[in-house]
Design the sequence.
């Protein structure tokens, strides 16, 4: 291990080290912590300009219920879920299929198709903005959930295909030959052999895709307009404009927007890190 | 039919499997991207008929001072973002200790990574606020007045990049921690036996083993810098007076607000051309070892 | 009745010609063992029979049915892999019943087939375990069990025992032979192991460079190889080969001189070489003897190294200027196998003798010229 581990016996050195790390952590997360504290302050306190001191009163329930009652945040939240969950499912299904075929079937153009998936995944969003927006307007999906679901599913399939292909390619080839020799159809092989073996990859992809889609801002403002379909990221930015002085409420909304991905991250941290590093390392 | 299916399913089934994903990605991502290049040769308001103008959009772009501002800002992003890998590595070295509680602290360090850029933008707008922001507070301690970073044409881009660095450093931290986890213990041991320690060990034994991870951290950072849009949109909307725009934002603004879709497409194409160089370099390096073994 | 018929099968991998005009008819209940050097196409041939690889041209029939274009699952075959290829997420029972489940057989039938296979392979206690909880030998038995449950017409094995240690290998070898006797099914078996080939096969197929060199019963192949390659491939230690020149040839007889003066007379040749032609003389190590026994041919040598194996003794003798080519040790010394323990001093001068009837003569293209020798009937 590098740096050299602090010996277990050096109790005080260890305690001091942890104290140092905690100090760095506080600095690191200071911006976020202050937003959290402000989300607990009363309106009067905010008006009085106490942004950085310890809150005089804790208005947790009031502020957070106010955010949901007085703003459209609840709506945005539901919208985000309606957009994100189907996208995650769509990406998992499509990328399992594409990854399986690209890793296990030799055909002319295999590498090219794979390279397109990988390369497309790095494209800047702006390069496809105009035609995608135009397409969605054309088929009447602009400013509906479907516009975002379809786009996110398509775009994330690029990264997910890369991820799945590499994961499935690492499984032993003889398992697939054995399945074939035993008369399993491609579909049966996929369902009974591949899917059970790629569960960890599915978990990692699910959390990664969830985070990517939930956090998206660009497509939210390009493909939606009305509060009825707008996801939280775009919604939050609107709120900030509308509620300029009620910083405690904006802060509460900000925290609410951050909670789902952060909670997902803490629940499935191992998968998230593994997925992110594997995805990055292999592409 | 079923006889036909059984005979041919070994290639029919895979074709059917790959089709939905490939079609969706092909149309929505690849085709759309190519189409943008096509659109860049037209004058188009997004609704009416398209008017072929050849290279006129690019000529206009070459004469547009705003374009150079964007380009300059993209360079600022790129250069400043280069801080993310070393800072991420430094944090990773700090956190790579197996002490009770360290695991939890590590996860807290990762948090900025999973925040939406809108969240980061809002948080930092706040930090930078000249009347009640954290920055003004700190300046206040020294009896000075904080500059209004986000309304200062010369400082605004730097302020935005610093905010964007926050999650990017966390990303590099994750990568480097994973890299430190995969170090070859024998080599470290050999280094210790040979008397390497501290910085010498880092330089001669550890960093060479982190080469792949460093490359990835660098590449991810470069691409992240060129992609920057959200933070500019949320924190400054390109202002003041367009001084903090980047190509991605200028393109969005020209298309959505000014209805100059052809012009916007031209900007997107330029951005794409710049990124393509980096993407090609990245993919080549990544896919090469695999091709050699295949 | 022919169980498997392979007709003029060719296989190309891009520009690489992996199988060259393979034809072979396998009878019902035969145990065919395929041997050959690494990369010669054994696995490829097995996979084409299984349908895991398509043929470039040629036909395949199993039980009179043309299966050339059928999916593996429809060919009536089962395959056992070197790495076992057990599904890690399924129990032993699920692994063994997988093929039948995929074919949507009734549960009762699957259970019956699985418990029969488990009983044959003594796996009844392990049915609920996962592969990673089993020993290597048990895993291999599960892999075989998975094949048995499908009651295939033909079993295909690709080096199934090579991941096991020596003792387990012997045990599994015996079990497989017993299983073959019990099921009476046709089996095709690929191996690197000479002992497996010699003991299990009803017929051995020797492959080389994508071509079949020879097919025949083990002892037939050992005694009467059709060419130098087969002669050298079968038998451990390897046959001694010495290059020589035909000094005189007359009718079906010929004299061959090797080195400086060793002359060997051959009779009953199946083909007469031209006088002056370069040929190769081969003699198996166990047909050489050391000492003063009366022999038709003998030459002096020095002992370089002696290996005492208990049951036998292997002597490496340097007979310079007479040198062997392509020997195991790669040094040009002769390998002599003696059936008991016999001490030799290093560097001791000895006389090596053999009976010229035991020697083989190969033409420069490798073809065997010497007459067939009687094969011991078993
Ligand atoms: N998918 C493939 N593409 C190209 N060449 C291949 C492929 N599979 C096998 N080959 C080539 O075909 C030849 C025969 O391979 P095969 O696996 O049949 O050898 P083998 O006799 O089983 O060898 P071993 O004893 O080492 O298992 C080898 O030279 C191999 O390189
Ligand atoms: Mg093989």
Sequence:
């Amino acid at each position: 291990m590098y740096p050299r581990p602090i010996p277990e016996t050096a109790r005080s050195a260890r305690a001091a080290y942890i104290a140092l790390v905690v100090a760095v952590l506080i600095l690191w997360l200071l911006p976020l912590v202050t937003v959290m504290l402000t989300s607990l302050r009363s309106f009067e306190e905010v008006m009085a300009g106490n942004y950085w001191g310890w809150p005089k009163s804790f208005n947790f329930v009031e502020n957070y219920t106010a955010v949901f009652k007085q703003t459209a945040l609840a709506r945005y939240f539901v919208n985000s879920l309606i957009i994100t969950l189907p996208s995650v499912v769509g990406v998992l299904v499509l990328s399992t299929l594409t990854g399986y075929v690209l890793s296990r079937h030799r055909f002319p153009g295999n590498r090219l198709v794979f390279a397109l998936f990988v390369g497309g995944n790095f494209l800047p969003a702006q390069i496809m903005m105009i035609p995608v927006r135009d397409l969605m307007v054309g088929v009447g999906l602009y400013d509906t959930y479907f516009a975002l679901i379809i786009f996110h599913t398509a775009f994330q399939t690029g990264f997910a295909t890369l991820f799945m292909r590499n994961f499935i390619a690492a499984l032993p080839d003889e398992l697939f030959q054995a399945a074939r020799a035993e008369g399993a159809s491609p579909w049966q092989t996929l369902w009974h052999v591949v899917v059970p073996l790629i569960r960890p990859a599915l978990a990692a992809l699910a959390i990664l895709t969830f985070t990517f889609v939930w956090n998206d801002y660009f497509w939210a403002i390009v493909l939606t307009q009305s509060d009825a379909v707008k996801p939280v990221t775009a919604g939050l930015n609107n709120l900030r404009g509308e509620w300029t002085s009620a910083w405690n409420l904006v802060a509460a909304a900000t925290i609410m927007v951050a909670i789902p991905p952060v909670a997902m991250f803490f629940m499935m941290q191992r998968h998230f890190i593994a997925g992110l590093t594997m995805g990055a390392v292999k592409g | 039919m079923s006889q036909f299916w059984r005979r041919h399913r070994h290639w029919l089934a895979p074709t059917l499997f790959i089709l939905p994903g490939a079609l969706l990605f092909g149309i929505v991502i690849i085709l759309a991207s190519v189409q943008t290049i096509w659109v860049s040769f037209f004058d188009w308001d997004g609704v009416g008929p398209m008017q072929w103008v050849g290279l006129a959009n690019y000529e206009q772009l070459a004469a547009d001072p705003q374009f150079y501002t964007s380009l300059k800002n993209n360079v600022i992003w790129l250069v400043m973002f280069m801080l993310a890998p070393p800072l991420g590595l430094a944090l990773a070295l700090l956190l790579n200790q197996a002490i009770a509680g360290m695991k939890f602290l590590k996860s807290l360090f990762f948090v900025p990574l999973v925040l939406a850029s809108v969240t980061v933008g809002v948080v930092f707008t706040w930090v930078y606020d000249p009347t009640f922001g954290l920055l003004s507070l700190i300046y206040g301690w020294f009896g000075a007045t904080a500059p209004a970073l986000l309304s200062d044409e010369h400082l605004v881009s730097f302020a935005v990049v610093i905010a964007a660095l926050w999650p990017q450093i966390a990303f590099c931290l994750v990568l480097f921690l994973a890299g430190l986890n995969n170090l070859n213990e024998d080599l470290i041991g050999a280094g210790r036996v040979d008397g390497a320690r501290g910085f010498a060990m880092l330089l001669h034994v550890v960093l060479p083993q982190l080469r792949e991870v460093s490359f990835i951290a660098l590449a991810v950072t470069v691409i992240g810098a060129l992609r920057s849009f959200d933070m500019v949109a949320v924190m400054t909307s390109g202002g003041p007076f367009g001084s903090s725009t980047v190509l991605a934002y200028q393109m969005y603004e020209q298309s959505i607000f000014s209805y100059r879709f052809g012009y916007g497409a031209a900007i997107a194409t330029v951005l794409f051309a710049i990124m393509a160089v980096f993407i090609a370099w990245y993919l080549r390096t990544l896919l090469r070892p695999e091709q050699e073994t295949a | 009745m022919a169980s498997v018929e392979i007709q003029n099968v060719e296989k190309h991998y891009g520009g690489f010609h992996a199988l060259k005009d393979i034809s072979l008819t396998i009878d019902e209940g035969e145990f065919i063992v395929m041997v050959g050097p690494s990369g010669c196409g054994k696995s490829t041939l097995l996979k084409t029979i299984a349908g895991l690889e398509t043929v470039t041209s040629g036909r395949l029939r199993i039980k009179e049915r043309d299966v050339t274009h059928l999916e593996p699952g429809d060919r009536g075959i089962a395959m056992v892999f070197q790495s076992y290829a057990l599904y890690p997420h399924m129990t032993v029972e699920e692994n063994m019943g997988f093929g039948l489940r995929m074919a949507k057989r009734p549960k009762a039938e699957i259970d019956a087939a699985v418990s029969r296979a488990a009983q044959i392979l003594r796996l009844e206690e392990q049915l609920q375990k996962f592969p990673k909880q089993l020993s290597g030998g048990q895993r291999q038995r599960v892999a075989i069990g998975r094949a048995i449950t499908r009651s295939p017409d033909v079993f295909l094995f690709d080096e199934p025992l090579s991941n096991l240690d020596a003792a387990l290998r012997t045990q599994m070898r015996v079990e497989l032979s017993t299983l073959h006797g019990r099921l009476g099914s046709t089996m095709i078996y690929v191996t690197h192991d000479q002992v497996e080939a010699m003991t299990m096969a009803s017929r051995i197929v020797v492959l080389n460079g994508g071509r079949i060199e020879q097919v025949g019963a083990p002892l037939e192949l050992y005694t009467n190889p059709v060419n130098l390659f087969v002669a050298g491939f079968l038998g451990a230690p390897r046959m001694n080969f010495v290059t020589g020149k035909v000094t005189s040839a007359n009718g079906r007889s010929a004299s061959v001189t090797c080195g400086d003066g060793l002359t060997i007379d051959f009779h009953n040749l199946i083909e007469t070489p031209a006088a002056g032609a370069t040929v190769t003389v081969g003699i198996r190590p166990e047909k050489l003897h050391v000492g003063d026994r009366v022999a038709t041919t003998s030459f002096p040598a020095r002992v370089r190294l002696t290996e005492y194996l208990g049951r036998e003794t292997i002597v490496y003798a340097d007979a310079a200027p007479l040198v062997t080519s392509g020997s195991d040790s790669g040094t040009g010394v002769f390998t002599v196998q003696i059936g008991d323990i016999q001490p030799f001093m290093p560097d001791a001068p000895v006389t090596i003798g053999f009976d010229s009837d035991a020697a083989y003569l190969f033409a420069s293209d490798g073809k065997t010229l010497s007459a067939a020798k009687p094969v011991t009937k078993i």
